[in-house]
Design a protein that fits this description.
Layout (H helix, E strand, L loop, with lengths): L2 H7 L10 E7 L4 E6 L1 H7 L1 H6 L7 E2 L5 E7 L4 H13 L11 H14 L2 H13 L4 H10 L19 H15 L14 H15 L12 H27 L4 H21 L6 H19 L9 H19 L7 H28 L8 H16 L3 H13 L9 H22 L6 H5 L3
Parallel strand pairs: 1-4
Antiparallel strand pairs: 1-2, 3-4
Pfam families: BTB, BTB-POZ_ANK-like
Keywords: Ubl conjugation pathway
Pathway: Protein modification; protein ubiquitination
Length: 443
């Protein structure tokens, strides 16, 4: 019989053909004997080859067999037994011994210690290919650094990604996160769950928590996102206009507009992380007149409440950004922003409150939102040229809804500044100082 065939017939635990005993021993006193064959052990394990070499003194048992002792923790006992089983079947594909990621990882640790290169290779192939649970992934990350270069392929899915690949994934996610489904959009429709997931992951990629953001918004990213912003606004304005031309199917149109408004509101949250909020604010200011001409149309005086509220929420973000100096607009555009939105806010707030009083709606303008709008408008008004402040405050005081919002603080500051400016002008004319330019800029 050929030598290879004779080796193939040798089985683990076959005492009649065994010439070596492997004693698996633990610190807790466990001592299990396994009848093995030196030829197989030497072939598949460097540790066994060293112990059975002429350079290593071995212990002779009473029945004249060599003995190799292996000491380890009790928790690794099954892994050592599986190693011996695999040594005898290493040339075959035996996946049942892996069982799961935890077991395969345990076998890999023991195989590395014993120098079983073929088993290491099989473990690595298995662990690299199968899915991991979160706790398994943590265990792999903790264990693999001590196992040497052979285990590196397992970590391929956890390696840092090339910045270009990250950018491509991010832009694709943005594409899904604000996708539309109208015929004049070249963006494909996205299921709601996919869209929500894309928005969540875009935010996660940009957030700076314990780790640095996954993505740095470079010029290429900003360019692509700006294109998305422009496209979204273009489609949104067409959707708004369709409300006037297609009043017979107003419910469907309202639903579509609300989806766009939700996307726009979401953009308000993530664009500051890319230094692109100014682009959004600029577009919203430009579109303000068209938006208001539609939702203030007489046909919608008692309708579109949810749209009006959502528009109010977006406007609040815009007013805050401009009012607190996070986005810089010219005085002319800031004045336009206040003049166009202040009447809508002071009229819509009491209407929403009254609507909720008679018929409880699933949406309402909460106090936090209103207070944020009020504070932002006050800050914005006080940064305008004094003549524009005077015009806005005079108009505000004439209305029945003067408390929506309450601009009393801005009114008081304007009165104080105006009197102080007059005093400075008077002193300047008497030759004491020349600060007449102060009054022209509202200081």
């Amino acid at each position: 019989m050929a030598n290879g065939d004779a080796t193939a017939l040798k089985k683990l635990g076959d005492r009649s053909t065994s010439d070596v005993i492997v004693r698996l021993r633990t610190k807790d006193g466990r001592d299990d004997w396994f009848y093995c064959h030196s030829e197989i052990l030497v072939k598949h394990g460097k540790y066994f080859a060293e112990r059975l070499s002429d350079d290593w003194p071995t212990c002779q048992l009473l029945d004249s067999r060599n003995c190799i002792e292996v000491y380890f923790e009790e928790s690794d006992f099954d892994h050592h037994v599986n190693i011996l089983r695999l040594i005898y079947t290493v040339d075959n594909v035996v996946t049942d011994l892996w069982q799961n990621v935890k077991n395969a990882l345990g076998i890999l640790k023991v195989a590395t210690t014993l120098g079983c290169t073929q088993i290491i290779s099989k473990c690595v192939q298995y662990l690299e290919a199968v899915p991991w649970e979160e706790n398994e992934e943590e265990e792999i990350i903790k264990t693999l650094p001590s196992l040497g270069s052979e285990a590196i392929p397992i970590l391929a899915r956890l390696q840092p990604v090339d910045p270009t690949a990250v950018r491509n994934v991010f832009l694709s996610a943005m594409h899904v996160a604000i996708s539309a489904n109208k015929e004049y959009s070249n963006l494909p429709i996205s299921p709601d769950e996919l869209k929500t997931s894309a928005q969540e992951q875009v935010e996660y990629m940009l957030v700076e928590d314990d780790d640095a953001p996954l993505l740095a918004a470079d010029d290429h990213v900003k360019y692509e996102v700006r294109k998305h912003i422009l496209q979204l606004f273009s489609i949104f304005e067409k959707e708004m206009a369709s409300l006037l031309s297609d009043t017979d199917v107003i419910e469907n149109g309202e639903s579509s507009v609300l989806k766009f408004l939700s996307d726009l509101l979401w953009l308000c949250h993530i664009l500051p992380k890319m230094d692109l909020l100014s682009d959004f604010v600029s577009k919203w200011e430009e579109a303000s007149d068209n938006i208001l001409n539609i939702i203030k149309d007489m046909r919608f005086s008692s309708a579109l409440w949810e749209i009006k509220l959502k528009v109010m929420e977006i406007t609040a973000k815009v007013l805050e950004a401009v009012g607190y100096g996070n986005v810089i607009l010219s005085a002319l555009r800031r004045t336009h922003l206040v003049k166009v939105w202040l009447p809508f806010i002071r009229e819509t707030k009491p209407e929403l409150d009254l609507q909720n009083l008679h018929e409880k709606l699933p949406y309402e303008m909460d106090n936090d939102l209103f207070q944020n709008i009020e504070a932002a408008i006050i800050s914005l008004v006080l940064a305008l040229p004094s003549s524009d402040q005077a015009e806005i405050l005079a108009d505000w005081l004439k209305t029945e809804q003067a408390r929506y919002p309450d601009l009393s603080e801005a009114f008081e500051v304007w009165c104080y500044r105006s009197k102080a400016a007059k005093r400075r002008l008077s002193l300047g004319l008497n030759g004491v100082s020349s600060t007449s330019t102060v009054s022209s800029v509202g200081h």
